[in-house]
Amino acid sequence: MKTEIVSAQECAKAIKLLRDGEVVALPTETVYGLAADALNPDAVAKIFEAKERPRFDPLIVHVPNGKMLDEIATLESELARKLMEKFWPGPLTIVFPKREIVPDIVTAGLETVAVRMSAHPIFREVVRKLNRPLAAPGANQFGRISPTTAQHVFGELGGRIPLIVDGGATEHGIESTIVQVASRVIEVWRRGPITDEMLRPFGEVREQTSPVNVGAPGQLPTHYAPRTKLIVVESLGNFCVPPGRRIGALAFRPVAGVTDSGRPRPTTAATNASSDFAAMHHLTERGDLREAAANFFWMLRELDAENLDLIVAERVPEEGIGAAINDRLTRAATN
Ligand code: TXA
Ligand code: MG
Questions:
Q1: Do 242 and 308 fall within a single domain?
Q2: Are residues 142 and 236 in the same domain?
Q3: Terminal CA-to-CA distance of the chain, rounded, Å?
Q4: Which domain holds residue 280?
Q5: Is the pLDDT at 2 greater than 50, yes or no?
Q6: Does 193 map to a domain?
Q7: Phi, psi of 327 (to 5 degrees)
Q8: ∠128-14-20 over CA atoms, to 5°?
Q9: ∠ CA 55-217-184 to the nearest 5 degrees?
Q10: Is residue 267 included in any domain, yes or no?
Q11: What does DSSP assign to residue 109?
């Protein structure tokens, strides 16, 4: 199959394909999604096929408005309503009890459905004009690095899907926060751009700690993984590159004495074997965690393309969106 990449001006092509029961990759403010009409089981099956995603992994459904939400889910919780008022449209997914109309293939047979309302102008336009709920997981092969540009989507799914709408690099760079609300408690299934700190004014925030939940493979211990072996360290400053090994580094921010071998080295006593990384990326120049999140997946992807023996990634400060980056790092790791 030929995969076409078009600009926002050609959204009509996406709408037509979706209406015809096809899949289309679209930008959202988090990562690119692979969308299909959520109420058409045959269309949704094509998402699973293109991604080689196991059928037990439920999808997120994107709605254009509150009316559509009412059609697919029941809204009993006042707290959930408040979260929607505050964070929708935006990078927050809320798990609701589902209505009959939602096909089992979307929810993997669960009684709940995960719903979100994207703030991305292209995604919004498509879902509004279509006026149908859209199922859309990340537009990557199952278990692999999430795509934050149209080119990444092409690299992952080119030849398997008919169309990608190019909206440039995504704003947040990591997937939406997923929550479920139980009376006054906000249970966080997946950390993301809506941080614990932002949720706390609305109720008690609890992490869902179950190590493996079959209903939520974003929770699987290994996910978001590069092909290259990856380990996570507290600090790159202490890491010594063994001679003859091609090792790449994913650093939080620049620190004197830790550079890649291609750059001039600072003449400090800290200059030692740790300088011999074959490739190095800094998630942020300024120590800004939002910038780090936006850069995270594409830098990981670049390192993965460098033919390295190993990627060493440094944990970032565990605050704000940093917690979500560390969560992705842990799941991308093979240690
Ligand atoms: O930012 C995002 O959320 C992106 C964009 C494209 O919208 N989508 C995304 O989808 O990250 P995906 O399929 O990569 O992740 C969906 C996650 C999975 O971990 C899935 O298990 C979980 O949502 N999920 C879906 N339905 C659920 C449910 N009813 N209860 C709990 N978790 C659910
Ligand atoms: Mg994903």
A1: yes
A2: no
A3: 37
A4: 230-333
A5: yes
A6: no
A7: -60, -45
A8: 95
A9: 120
A10: yes
A11: T
What is the number of residues in the chain? Answer: 335
Is there a domain that residue 39 lies in?
A: yes
Tell me the torsion sign for CA atoms 62, 51, 220, 228.
negative
* 139: its two tokens: 């537009």
Ligand 1 atom at minimal distance to the Cα of residue 118: 7
CA atoms of 246 and 331, how far apart (whole Å): 22
In-domain check, residue 145: yes
State whether the Cα torsion 316-322-325-331 is positive or negative. Answer: positive
pTM above 0.90, yes or no: yes
Which regions of 122-246 does DSSP assign to beta strands (E)?
Answer: 134-135, 163-166, 177-182, 185-190, 204-207, 230-233
89 cis-preceded (ω within 30 degrees of 0): yes
Residues 158 and 271 both lie in one domain: no
* Closest residue CA from atom 15 of ligand 1: 137
The residue from 145, 175, 205 where one domain ends is 175
The ligand whose atoms approach the alpha carbon of 141 most closely is 2
> Quick one: CA dihedral 126, 218, 250, 195, positive or negative?
positive
* Distance from C-alpha of 210 to C-alpha of 221, rounded to nearest angstrom: 10
Q: 258 - beta bridge partners?
A: 255
pLDDT in tens, 129-172: 999 999 999 999 999 999 999 999 999 999 999 999 999 999 99
Looking up tokens 């605050």, which residue turns up?
319
Same domain assignment for residues 170 and 57: yes
- CA-nearest residue for atom 21, ligand 1, is 216
Residues 12 and 115 in one domain: yes
Judging by DSSP bridges, how do beta strands 247-251 and 163-166 pair with one another?
unpaired
Separation of CA 27 and ligand 2 centre (Å): 14
CA distance 137 to 36: 10
The total number of structural domains that make up the chain: 2
- Closest listed ligand to the CA of 114: 1
Tens of pLDDT, residue by residue over 86-139, are 999 999 999 999 999 999 999 999 999 999 999 999 999 999 999 999 999 999
